[in-house]
Design a protein that fits this description.
The complex is a heterodimer of chains A (452) and B (465).
Chain A (H helix, E strand, L loop, with lengths): L1 H16 L14 E4 L5 E6 L5 E8 L13 H8 L11 H8 L3 E6 L4 E8 L3 H13 L5 H20 L2 H13 L13 H6 L2 H11 L5 E7 L3 H11 L23 E6 L6 E7 L6 H14 L5 H9 L5 E6 L7 E7 L6 H18 L3 H18 L3 H14 L9 H6 L3 H10 L6 E7 L6 H7 L1
Parallel strand pairs in A: 2-6, 7-11
Antiparallel strand pairs in A: 1-2, 3-5, 3-6, 4-5, 8-10, 8-11, 9-10
Helix pairs in contact in A: 1-16, 4-9, 10-13, 10-16, 11-12, 12-16
Chain B lengths: L27 E4 L5 E6 L5 E9 L12 H8 L9 H10 L3 E6 L3 E9 L3 H13 L5 H19 L7 H9 L13 H6 L2 H11 L5 E7 L3 H12 L23 E5 L5 E9 L8 H11 L6 H9 L7 E4 L7 E9 L3 H18 L3 H14 L7 H13 L5 H4 L1 H7 L2 H11 L7 E6 L1 H4 L9 E5 L11
Parallel strand pairs in B: 2-6, 7-11, 7-12
Antiparallel strand pairs in B: 1-2, 3-5, 3-6, 4-5, 8-10, 8-11, 9-10
Helix pairs in contact in B: 1-7, 3-8, 9-12, 9-16, 10-11
Classes of the chains: A alpha+beta (452), B alpha+beta (465).
């Protein structure tokens, strides 16, 4: 495919200039790693700014590992990780953690499932105990499985069914991929939410929740040697499992534009476009981030200036890049004003993309994108949880947490020509899916009156 | 410049030792000649600087019937200021990777900026221009107003959770300024004229209303001189600071049903007048609320989510201002489970009043509050906002530095009296429901008198007859 060939070629340019702007990050030289005999890797970044610790455990499993019949199970599994082990009753994990000053959450994406604990450093040992217990002893209480089904269904109703944008994105993702499991929504299709079984969960646990499929990041008020001692005590004896089956399906090249239309009550129609592009670790991903930022990040971006400021053809515009293990999607979307003409909004987006592909970005825009990336890098390192997230992102998706510190230099290496080529080769009509969500009927008289 | 007018105070620092026992970093404070209050913290772990300017007044200064005036004013000061057009202003911020935003709250508006420390001069210039030299251009005003209206319409097409507090506060605080929509409604924004913005700027904005906090990688002595040059001689606001009267509690259970015909879920909000930011019982209220609806294992979330699977989340919180704001309970459930979920919520509130908190619950709540406090003042932006909040409400550094002691001091007697005084009884609640009215209209009558409106109505409250 033309665009992935471009990505490869760009990779060669990158190697030469990457070292130039690597910033000095205070404390980064204190980061220590260890891999336990069972294959579980730990990365510890001591940081005594506050007397707290952020512990993030990343499992390499997400909806990408699912199939029809069990869609949404990765996310459902995330919920079940809080619902009881052979040694602790359902709810005990949260009660013990919160009662000792800790808080937790978790998220699931197409690629990974991440468990986050934030706690005072005085209870670090207890949190190791809790985290290792659910990695070793998870139980699947049949009653909890049923009530948690309802919780997930409610989550789906809020984020997809009662949210127009959520509805549109889910349908577009399912259409943009015909082969690769990125077509599966993380929350799962309703019939699968109703249908998954305890045995599905048990299989999933054995296959994916093994220490050799996990990496743990511990950032904050903790000594690495203390953390490793606790890891030896609580985690080292959890048996390794055979490596989970690899996801081998590759999305075939798209052969022409796909279009879909959702009819749903909407005073403000929506339009979104999604193009196939590279995986997180590919250089093309970085180029696309820069391209999308020039196109749609902030009030000075091209799409905002043209669609919102000059033409009033959008209430809001934005971009999104799904950076994962496998080639993801680059998104552009616009919220169309009440009574607005979706076709006109689409035409204006097309014009801006054509202009970028034709002339490339200005030097000022390239500098802006680099500066924004640099500031984003530093903001990510402002908190212990930000550090744990950033380390995880680079260790898991780029193969080495140390690549985090090369990121500003990588952005520095991206040129106007790179962006111009990507605009021409990736943002092609044949490579995209276009989705429109609008009502069957015109907005109500009252809404029009209010909008004057 | 008149540096001698400035008083520099160095506050003591203490190391963070036990859980939750954090102290504010050393900060320097000063008052500028026009009355503006300044607080500065040097923090050098990242090459970033955050700035928070809080100006007293906010939506309380909106003309009657023109809710959203302050909010439109804050939109407009980012659309051209000093020698820059709207586009040039946005470029100046974003070209260096900076961020600058202005937004209105009920009792103040704020300008927040975050820049690389190398760009701090530019940051000060842009903030000073936005505040003191806004262009208030007529065509930009029309665009900003249209966009504000359209954004409300767009929000109504999105996840209703984001709208619950707009409807809830409007219903609870009917006739009180806390019930006004700070961002305006589709109807009220239509009434705002550019002259209203100009009058707002003259009367409600000025140096004497300003609190400036800056946190990050800079030198305090230089920064103070720069702030005095940039803001120290700015004029005062033309009018006195507007204030809100003490709101009256709701008695009974007035129900507002907002019809969203395609909804598959009912979103509910139950509230009454709660407590102010400076309420002496505020820590005890938070200790109780943590157990009732402030964390994952709270009573509400345990009943509605963990035990019954009715919802993805149920919570409660105090929204505090100079006057008591709302205490609200919120959740959502599948349309057919509406009554079951609301009944369960009311039962849980009744149980709080009947049983209070056990000794283990009190201890668990205290541990949780201490453990989760330090990450709330970790970043430059968080510290800048916290300092501004303290200065706005006339609180000293003890608000942070003695937090741990205040939490640990809450005992069983304080818990009992707080539940009695600050948490509404289940039969006194303003109730708002967003959902499919045809399916729940009859059933919800059992809670109290029902008033109905449509989600598409251009207001957040029914028109009063």
């Amino acid at each position: 495919m033309a665009w992935s060939a471009a990505g490869l070629a760009l990779g060669l340019i990158f190697g030469a200039t990457a070292q130039a702007a690597t910033p000095e990050v205070p404390g980064a030289d204190q980061i220590v790693t260890r891999t336990l005999p069972n294959g579980m890797k730990l990365v510890v970044w001591p940081d005594k700014d506050i007397p707290n610790v952020a512990m993030y455990t990343w499992y390499r499993v997400g909806s990408r590992n699912e199939r029809p019949g069990i869609t949404g199970i990765s996310h459902f599994f995330e919920h079940m990780m809080f619902n009881g082990t052979k040694t602790r009753a359902p709810g005990e994990f949260d009660r013990v953690m919160e009662g000792n000053g800790g808080r937790n959450n978790a998220y699931t994406s197409s690629d990974v499932t991440v468990y986050q604990n934030w706690f005072p450093s005085s209870v670090t040992g207890l949190i190791f105990d809790l985290e290792s217990d659910r990695m070793r002893n998870l139980d699947f209480n049949a009653e909890k499985v049923e009530s948690e089904r309802g919780v997930v269904y409610s989550e789906r109703r809020s984020s997809v069914d009662n949210d127009n944008f959520g509805t549109l994105i889910e349908q577009m993702q399912a259409s943009a991929y015909v082969a690769h499991p990125y077509q599966i929504p993380v929350i799962g299709w309703p019939s699968d939410i109703e249908g998954w079984k305890v045995t599905d969960l048990q299989d999933y646990y054995r296959q994916y929740y093994a220490p050799n499929n996990a990496v743990m990041f511990i950032v904050g008020d903790v000594e690495p040697e203390e953390a490793f001692k606790l890891a030896d005590q609580y985690l080292a004896s959890i048996p390794a499992q055979p490596a989970p089956p690899a996801v081998t399906t590759k999305e075939p090249p798209q052969l022409g534009e796909r279009r879909l239309r959702i009819e749903r009550d909407a005073q403000t129609p929506l339009i979104a476009m999604a193009w196939h592009t590279g995986a997180a670790a590919e250089r093309e991903a970085r180029v696309m981030e820069v391209l999308l930022s020039i196109l749609g990040d902030g009030d000075s971006s091209r799409l905002y200036q043209r669609l919102v400021e000059k033409e009033q053809a959008a209430v809001d515009v934005g971009t999104q890049f799904d950076a994962g293990f496998d080639p993801g999607l680059a998104w552009v979307y616009a919220v169309v004003p009440p009574g607005g003409d979706v076709t006109r909004t689409e035409k204006l987006i097309d014009e801006e993309i054509a202009r970028l592909a034709q002339d490339g970005p200005t030097p000022v825009e390239i500098t802006k994108a680099r500066n924004q990336a640099l500031v984003g890098f530093w903001h990510g390192l402002e908190t212990i949880s930000g550090k744990a997230q950033a380390l995880g992102q680079y260790e898991v998706f780029h193969g080495d947490y140390r690549k985090l510190f090369d990121a500003p230099a990588e952005y520095e290496s991206i040129t106007a020509e790179d962006v111009k080529i990507a605009a021409a080769t990736v943002l092609r009509r044949e490579n995209r899916t276009v989705g429109v969500l609008e009502s069957k009927v015109e907005p109500t008289a009252q809404a029009r009156e209010g909008a004057k | 410049m008149r540096a001698h007018l400035l008083s520099l105070l160095l506050m003591p620092v203490a190391a963070a030792l036990a859980a939750g026992d954090v102290k504010l970093p050393a900060y320097q404070s000063a008052t500028l000649p026009n009355g503006a209050v300044v607080a500065l913290v040097e923090k050098r772990d990242t090459p970033l600087v955050s700035m928070n300017v809080t100006v007293r007044g906010g939506g309380l200064g909106d003309p009657v019937g023109k809710d959203g005036t302050a909010s439109l004013y804050t939109d407009l000061i980012q659309k051209g200021a000093g020698n820059r057009t709207a586009a040039q202003f946005a470029e100046a911020i974003e070209n260096v990777g900076g961020a600058l935003s202005a937004s209105a709250g009920t009792e103040s508006f704020g300008v927040n900026a975050s820049f690389m420390s190398r760009d701090v001069d530019l940051m000060l210039e842009l903030v000073a221009d936005a505040l003191q030299r806004p262009r208030l251009d007529a065509s930009e005003f029309e665009k900003a107003r249209t966009l504000a209206v359209q954004s409300i319409v767009a929000a109504k097409d999105s996840d209703p959770r984001a709208l619950m507090s707009s409807y809830g506060d409007a219903w609870l605080f009917r006739g009180h300024p806390y019930g006004r929509a700070v961002g305006g409604s589709e109807a009220s924004l239509a009434a705002v004229k550019l002259d209203d913005i100009k009058r707002y700027y003259a009367e409600q904005v000025g140096g004497d209303r300003m609190i400036i906090t800056v946190v990050g990688d800079f030198d305090s002595v230089t920064m103070l001189q720069q702030l005095e040059r940039a803001f120290g001689t700015w004029r005062k606001a033309g009018a006195p600071v507007p204030t809100a009267p003490t709101p009256a509690n709701v008695t009974g259970r007035p129900v507002l049903l907002v019809d969203k015909p395609d909804a598959t879920q009912t979103y509910f909000w139950l509230g009454n007048v709660g407590a102010s930011r400076t309420d002496p019982a505020r820590t005890a209220q938070s200790v109780v609320n943590t157990v009732f609806g402030g964390r994952f294992t709270s009573m509400l979330n345990t009943e509605l989510r963990v035990k019954s699977g009715l919802t993805y989340g149920a919570s409660s919180s105090f929204n505090r201002g100079s006057q008591p704001g709302s205490f609200r309970i919120g959740s959502y459930t599948e349309t057919s489970k509406t009554i079951q979920a609301i009944d369960m919520t009311l039962d849980t509130l009744a149980r709080l009043h009947k049983d209070g908190l056990g000794a283990d619950q009190l201890k668990s709540s205290q541990s949780y509050m201490l453990g989760q406090f330090p990450p709330s003042i970790e970043t430059n932006g968080q510290i800048a906002a916290r300092l501004a909040d303290m200065l706005f409400y006339g609180l000293g550094p003890e608000d942070v530095n003695e937090y741990a002691q205040r939490v640990m001091k809450v005992d069983a007697a304080a818990v009992r009296s707080t539940i009695e005084q600050s948490f509404p009884q289940p039969d006194n609640l303003a109730i708002v429901l967003i959902g499919d009215a045809a399916k729940i209209r009859d059933a919800v009558k059992k809670y109290g008198p029902v008033t109905e409106m449509k989600l598409t109505d251009p207001r957040f409250a029914p028109v009063t007859k």
